[in-house]
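note to self: dont lose this again. the chain is below, predicted strucutre after it. 131 aa total, dont forget to put it in the shared folder this time
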Amino acid sequence: YFAPKLPLTRDDVSGYKMLENLKDVVKQNFKMLILTLTGERIMNPNFGVGLYKYLFEQIPSETLQENIKADIISQCSTYLPYISIKNISFETSDNSPHTAEYNTLYVEVEYYIKSLNASDILQVSVSENVF
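---
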């Protein structure tokens, strides 16, 4: 076992559900980096992309998407240097009919884990209903 799976859930075998391979640990770490608001993490106030802060901005907006991309790339190079970003894309009601929900931001990041020689895709959505 490498790390507890978040959110924490009980498990009869090891007490809590655990991540059992490094690829899943990297994906969970990446997801936490994207969802954590800057300033939210104690003792590391610069950590986090804080995707929620972009939630009520104008979408689709080229400028907004470029800002989010730059933020993800910058945070990854600082806190997750063992991955490289291959592509970041966004789904909006304009380019995907199943994402017509208002106040929802969908981001898909294709990335490569250098030490594992493996690629993966992280899909994250945030909406106003989370808070």
